Amino acid sequence: MEDLLRVGVISSTHGIKGEVKVFPTTDDMNRFKKLKMVTLDTGKEQKELEIENVKFFKQFVILKFKGIDNINDIEKYKGKDLLISRENAVDLAEGEFFIFDLIGLQAEEEDGNSLGELTEVLQTGANDVFVIKTKQGKEILIPYIDDCVKKIDLNEKKLVVHLIPGLVE
Fold it and tell me: What are the CA-CA distances from residue 148 to residues 8, 81, 95, 127 (Å)?
């Protein structure tokens, strides 16, 4: 499991006093109000940044970091990820998972027949859909509903599914 979780990507600067526009990659933008620190992944190193101020503008979060007071000091980080530790992640309810924890799970039917690897989670609005890539390179789409997903075991890296008629040709 990953230790650092991406909560946003710096999309551009905002003004000339070192603020940045951040595209949030979290379901709840308001979580930025509770964060005190983030880790900036520059690609070469990871820097701890203290959040001084949080504002919202349309679909963006505007962040001001302590000690960065000039557009020139932050401009070079455009397109870079902002990360938090797993300890600072939101608490999940029963049956909820972080998508990145699901990627790579081995999918199998209830009888133990191997189907392949979970490679992607599509967020459709109604329910998520798991994309399982078979050894033959085909994709099986499994809706994340109780009728289809019987068990998710992160420790064993296993996903047990029930294939209802019509899911696989």
Answer: 32, 34, 14, 12
